[in-house]
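Z., the sequence and structure:
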Amino acid sequence: MRESCTAVVTDLSTRVRPDSVPQSLSEQWFASDQAVRVQVAYRCGAEGSEHVYDRVTASVMVLVDDHEIAANCWRVMEVAAPLVRYPESGGVYEIDVPGLVPDRLDPLGRFGTRFLPDQWQSLVVELTAPLDPGSHTLDIRFVDDDGIIADATQRLEVVSVTGTVASFHHSEWIHVDALQAWSGVEAFDERHWDLIDKAVELAASAGVDTLFTPILTPPIDVDPTSPPLATQLVVVHRQGDRWSFDFDRLDRWSRIARRHGITHLEFSHLFCQGEVDRPADVYDADGNHLFGSHLPTEGYRDFLAILLPALDQWSRRHGWSDALYWHVSDEPRANQYTSYRKAVDMVRRTVPEATVIDAVDDPRFATVVDVPVTIYGHLLECEAAGLDGMWAYTSCASTFWEPNRHLGMPLTRLRALGLLLWWHHTPGLLHWALNFWFDQFSRYLVDPNADTSADLAFPSGDSSVIYPRIDGSLVPSLRLKVLAQLHEDVRLLRRVEDAVGRPTVVELIEHLAPGSTADLDHHYPLEPDFYRSLTANLLCLLKNIDGATV
């Protein structure tokens, strides 16, 4: 090994910046149903030589218990964050001014990585197969033709978990129009389908089990004067007053969902965002714009009266009928309560067993739908009103004390969301954008590698957690991996609660973060050490090791 080169295994919930001092961790704990993933920071010393940058290049080997093992390795690359926060935002931020933030994960190619003098970089390493329960030694080596340049080791404790745990649903809305526009292909040609397949794979890797499904062209974040791209799965044919539908695209979508472990579908909205009286965008097979927010509404309800039963029959044939959510309108306005209720009633008359889900922040609307979704900051208000079982969503408005995924926030402010969703018995999490790569109203493309704010519309990071690369591929983000941790946290907390009781888990949280449980919403822990200790102690409780903390 070269004395000037250093590597350490550090926390995935910490951003490694060029001038940071990453914490070296001697051990981490994992449940047997979790993916083993770590972050490795590395650098070299300048040694007074201007040529160090040119010669310290390495490939990576991953060993467990002295045996080389298959693993995915990604370099953590910086992206631009031009709008870090709104002026009125609150809570803890890592950065307050525009800058570069480590987030995009580029696959480590055959040429390896280059050490930089006096600058830390990092890799995310994720094992491709589970480890047997027990203690293991992880060894990550940076090597060149002369041998090992640097290595980092860590003890892994893997605890066996068995049995089922209550479902926790997670949806990140996929924008198939962004995939099409970025790649410059025709809608639903083979290249487009390849990108859809990869986007669903990436979403599922973070725990997404509920797939937003654009049966019609989604009326979300669009400018009525600039019609959206026709990206709907239902092919519509019209002959006079007769309607017929081709579901071949929907069939293929269903197969992709099944292949990646998706358990629920979420049919896109039938009416416009905040405008319940305006139809979603509908195109026919020849590209004619039949219905939309800026078009006459005449005949739309008659169209739905034929389409919805056909979709219901399709869902029954393909085994989705008991795992299907129907959207009516996103975030209906307070003065549209009557119109919204009538629209929901229309869906239920047409499809009597439909499960209606929508983002609704007014408590009156929550009593109308089967699965109301409220912005996280309103959960306490909804609980006080006696509304239980609500899903939560985060968005650009969640910038005060709430947990969120924005690039200016510490990663633990995202990971804390899992703890808080468990705390509130929240059955599901929804976010509006897996990959929204447009300006605010979908009028033009915005490169998320150069601008993560949708052209200064939203706090950087709100509109995407995956990235397109110049070669046309899609890659995850560091935040997507933390979303996976969040999902695993909820499962583990629920599993331990089932095993030892909720009071014991609450007592453990209070022990690790004294004073927090009196008002966890506003005093959730932000230290990475807390989440590592919480995981270790929860797993110890499952192992029944004296009930002692570690």
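Confidence is low (pLDDT under 50) at residues 546-550. The chain is about 25% helix and 25% strand.

Let me know what you think.
H.
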